[in-house]
């Protein structure tokens, strides 16, 4: 038995993969990734694939970036990890200083954890306790958007709004009030974008105002609801929601786990509409996609309320030194290469390449914000009638793309593209053209 066959066999024997029906997995020809360079993943058989989703939305500057590799190695020469409970560490201090410098002005303190869900969990618990400290214990309700995704821990699932992922756990969750999501392609208010005057934002603002006496906070993925299907918010929606929160005395938590660190073309998505959240959850790209690290940034006001008491929350690997070093090296690349400025051209090229994809018969809509895109596949392009779930169209497109050397993942029937920033023009073109071919192959049965 070849080594790679043994690994695949042992994977099927011993591992349990996330978000995966293992019975299907056991039947599939699985890919075992061994190495990575730039925007490419290389498997144990030496086959190369373009990493079309930045390794589940985490990688920024490519795999095997020398600067990050070196920073982690150097840190290893000093220490891999020490705790932040009762001790400080050099890279965590330096990183906190950098994050506060980059984030919206309202945010002044950094609480580290190790994944996006925990960053959200921290924000929810802080909001809950904040109102207790302020003598308003009745303000304990959370507001979140329809189609929201904020992670997989119980608190994060409680503020989630994706039926397929979240409904099974309902009996375990705390109640949350859902706010109208601006899913323009399937407008929940039955309106048309050309004439709606962003009525969903007014509806959301109305819900926020009506719940102000009992609401602790509203949590939102600014600009793009990622796992909900790459739902891009119309201009003004975010600012209106932020304004309603401010006017109603409801804390605003910006979940930038997916959209942060340049994905939307700005360092943080909040910048697009100049909003100043009370808290911000960060994860995924914070280390350039190298190591698990997350952070919850909070306002000076929230920090002050807690200053003479303890916040009973902390994880074993909070503020891990290797992860913080990787994050600092990633910021070094942002600065030296002026990455954010360079993204503009790439985003425009991406838009140009996506144009022809929208023309395909079974593409209902292509949604793009920065280097995040979702291609919604539909049974009927005219009416937007979805495919039956049993058809597994998204999954079939992904398998077809894989045969052509591209790794992508679907969200139901939405094909997600999220190229890492290091992709060359040629690689970007290849990524989109393979996606287009794969969609045409599956949805038009080879007719092109
Ligand atoms: N919030 C958002 C907006 C996300 O997209 C995700 C992950 N996709 C999370 C939170 C959870 O992050 P993690 O998977 O690191 O727990």
Write the layout of secondary structure elements.
Layout: H1 3-14, H2 22-27, E1 33-37, E2 40-43, E3 48-51, H3 54-57, H4 66-78, H5 90-102, E4 107-113, H6 116-133, E5 141-145, H7 154-158, H8 163-166, E6 176-179, H9 199-210, E7 215-220, E8 224-225, E9 231-232, H10 237-248, E10 251-255, E11 279-282, E12 294-299, H11 300-306, H12 321-336, H13 339-358, E13 363-369, E14 372-377, H14 393-403, E15 406-407, E16 409-411, E17 414-417, H15 425-443
Parallel strand pairs: 3-15, 5-6, 5-7, 7-10, 10-11
Antiparallel strand pairs: 1-2, 2-3, 4-12, 8-9, 11-12, 13-14, 14-17, 16-17
Helix pairs in contact: 4-12, 5-12, 9-10, 13-15, 14-15
Would you tell me which CATH topology of the largest domain applies? Answer: Aspartate Aminotransferase, domain 2
Q: Distance between termini?
A: 41 Å
Gyration radius (Cα, Å) is 22 Å
At CATH's second level, what is the architecture of the largest domain?
A: 3-Layer(aba) Sandwich
Strand content: 15-25%
Query: Helical segment tally?
Result: 15
| Morphology | globular
Sheet with the most strands? 7 strands, mixed
**How many strands in all?**
17
Average pLDDT over all residues = 96
- Bound ligand species: 4'-deoxy-4'-aminopyridoxal-5'-phosphate
What structural class results from the helix and strand content?
alpha/beta
CATH class of the largest domain: Alpha Beta
What is the share of helical residues? Answer: 25-40%
Number of domains: 2
Low-pLDDT parts are none
CATH superfamily of the largest domain: Type I PLP-dependent aspartate aminotransferase-like (Major domain)
Spatial ordering of strands, largest sheet: 4-12-11-10-7-5-6
